């Protein structure tokens, strides 16, 4: 840990409270940021050369209590966007980040939540999910589903619809998501959410990049079986995601050519 980061952590915790920024157990260089203005907490990774390069927002750590559906995802995005505007190479940035969030997070979340409710009401039909094969390992179960998307807002709508209409999915241990979108104007959008399974969303997004997939999203659901899988969990998550893409005809695979599409 750099001296700058050590000093910054001490300063932030002195100003906003002792547990505002605390290390994530067993994960080097990963810290949990508890937002003073909100119950949502986010995971930050600090590269070894911080503050010359910015910290990375890995995802939400805890959605908090009393939050509305989609609120945690929006807060994560707000933190990421604010970090992009406040970071300056060579300068620590967390104080500026938190001060910006103090001014904007409550009003932004309220406005986005109302917007999300309106968007969700516009979904009259369920998303055209294509389901993967069910993968089981040591009592943990993995299932992926993919669907075509044209905008990030549509991808978020699909996730909200899934969590609102499928109680089993909503109660799962993790719902890891990723999407890649390219507009007719060649504007590119790509994002992911680990949903508590550290680095999983980024690996799924990387898989999509390697497969050169566009205008599609995927959600990989994991129900934890009580036995730690170690690195094997990433193989299973990616295998489920890839199988969904194959079944959805986003990529050709001779080994899966005989499998029928499973819609839900």
UniProtKB/TrEMBL annotation:
Q: Which PROSITE patterns match?
A: RWD, UPF0029
Keyword Repressor tagged:
yes
Coarse class of the primary localization is: cytoplasm
Any coiled-coil ranges, and where? none
Sorted alphabetically, which keywords does the UniProt record give?
Answer: Cytoplasm, Repressor, Stress response, Translation regulation
Matching Pfam families, A to Z? Impact_N, RWD
Question: What SUPFAM superfamilies does its record include?
Answer: Ribosomal protein S5 domain 2-like (SSF54211), UBC-like (SSF54495)
> Where does the protein end up?
Cytoplasm
User: What cellular-component terms does GO give this entry?
Assistant: cytoplasm
**Single Gene Ontology BP annotation:** GCN2-mediated signaling
Q: Answer whether the UniProt record assigns the keyword Cytoplasm to this protein.
A: yes
List each copy of the RWD domain by range: 7-108
State the InterPro entries in the record.
Impact, Impact_N, Impact_N_sf, Ribosomal_Su5_D2-typ_SF, RWD_dom, UBQ-conjugating_enzyme/RWD, UPF0029_Impact_CS
Q: Which family does it belong to?
A: Belongs to the IMPACT family.
Q: What protein name applies here?
A: Impact family protein
Report the source organism: Xylona heveae (strain CBS 132557 / TC161)
> What taxonomic lineage is listed for the species of origin?
Eukaryota, Fungi, Dikarya, Ascomycota, Pezizomycotina
């Amino acid at each position: 840990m750099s001296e700058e980061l050590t000093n910054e952590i001490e300063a932030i915790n002195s100003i906003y409270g002792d547990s505002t920024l605390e290390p994530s157990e067993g994960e080097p260089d990963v810290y949990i940021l508890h937002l003073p203005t909100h119950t949502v907490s986010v995971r930050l990774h600090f590269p070894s050369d911080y503050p010359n390069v910015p910290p990375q927002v890995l995802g939400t750590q805890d959605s908090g209590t009393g939050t509305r559906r989609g609120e945690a995802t929006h807060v994560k995005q707000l933190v990421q966007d604010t970090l992009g505007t406040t970071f300056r190479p060579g300068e620590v940035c967390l104080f500026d980040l938190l001060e910006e969030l103090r001014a904007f997070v409550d009003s932004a979340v309220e406005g986005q939540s109302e917007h999300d409710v309106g968007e969700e009401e516009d979904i009259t039909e369920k998303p055209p999910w294509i389901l993967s094969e069910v993968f089981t390992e040591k009592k943990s179960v993995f299932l992926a589903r993919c669907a075509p998307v044209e905008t990030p807002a549509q991808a978020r709508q699909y996730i909200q619809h899934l969590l609102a209409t499928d109680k089993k999915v909503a109660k799962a241990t993790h719902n890891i998501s990723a999407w890649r979108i390219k507009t007719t104007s060649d504007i590119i959008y790509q994002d992911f959410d680990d949903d508590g399974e550290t680095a999983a969303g980024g690996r799924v997004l990387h898989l999509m990049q390697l497969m050169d997939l566009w205008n599609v999203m995927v959600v990989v659901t994991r129900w934890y079986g009580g036995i730690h899988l170690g690195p094997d969990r990433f193989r299973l998550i990616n295998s489920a995601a890839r199988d969904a893409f194959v079944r959805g005809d986003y990529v050709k695979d001779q080994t899966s050519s005989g499998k029928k599409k499973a819609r839900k």
